[in-house]
Design a protein that fits this description.
This protein is an alpha+beta fold and 338 residues long. It contains 12 helices and 12 strands. The chain folds into 3 domains: 3-70, no CATH class; 78-177, 2-Layer Sandwich (Translation Initiation Factor IF3); 181-326, C8orf32 fold, CATH 3.10.620.30. The chain has helices at residues 3-27, 33-39, 59-70, 103-114, 131-144, 146-149, 180-201, 208-222, 238-244, 249-263, 296-300, 313-316, and strands spanning 43-44, 47-48, 78-81, 93-94, 120-126, 153-162, 167-176, 267-274, 279-287, 290-294, 309-311, 320-321. The strands form 3 sheets. It has a 5-stranded mixed β-sheet with strand order 3-6-7-5-4, with helices on one face. It has a 5-stranded antiparallel β-sheet with strand order 11-10-9-8-12. Strands 1-2 form a two-stranded antiparallel ribbon. It is globular. The chain starts with a helix and ends in a 17-residue tail after the last strand.
Amino acid sequence: MNNIGKKVISVVVAIVILLMLCAGIHFGVTGTTEARINKITHKHDGENYYNGIGGRASVEEELDYMILKYTGNLPDPDRGIVDSDTEMDPNPSEVDEDIGEDLDKLKQVLADELKSVPTGIVFHASDKITEQQVFDILSENAAYANGYDGILLKSFRCRKTAIEDGNAEFQLQINYQRNVEEVKQIKAKVVKETDAVMDKLKLDGMSDYEKVKAINTYLCDTVEYPAQEPYSDVSHTAYGSFVEHSAVCDGYARAADILCEEAGVNCQIVIGEVRNGGGHAWNLVQLDGQWYQWDVCWNDGGSSRREYFLVTDAFMEKSRTWDKTEFPKSATHSYSYN
């Protein structure tokens, strides 16, 4: 081969290398997490997603894949209003204090009552409170609280009876996905396993950041998303995370919430929608007086396990929506950690 031929080959090779480098920068292969999420180019074991015909998956294709892989069906109990002729629980749990018109108090009272796995609840409140408001609160408890207590709400019925002075008596009939004794056993197992996990993590003496980091690592190490539907009822609970080591998004979120509570770190469960469809659950956690977004489930699918760790509302808005009036506003910058 003459010198001209060698020079031509050298130029071609140089151009190819340059194009490869440009492609790497464009796709965010070596970029920051922020850059990668802007392109929604998530990786598994360092590899990008590819479409079915061998080409690089588009942003839309990757997002669709994420939706299918990471979202679960959140339980939504059936509900109904019944008349005075309907037979209700003969031995309900009775709430002593009058609720008045205080919906926040009603929310707390019902959450406390549900911890004992009752089949019926009776309480008194203002006649202005509607059955629909009671249903909304019970549904919220099903979505937010049942992972901690092992409560698997299936349906509830409400009978409202007006009494004197603008007050009313509310009678609730509660049904569960499993029999009551089994639900109580699930709850007890969650409590036992929570204690075991806390002993294993040894969080005493750690900063709040170190505690949350350890919890994130533990759940990513020990929990897997179910391989296929239909997902079991307990996959939506902390029982799925702690005992079966298999959970969908809200199972991860509830486990994280429990461990943070035990560790003395303020944490909340957020429920919203992944963009383009699909219910999803994750967490908000408070560090140094500010709130940060945290999605353990999606961290478990990433190579670094920190793509969704202590980030901002603005960052999360790229992949999901939620009712911001119901939750604290996050810090304006992601948490600075080592």
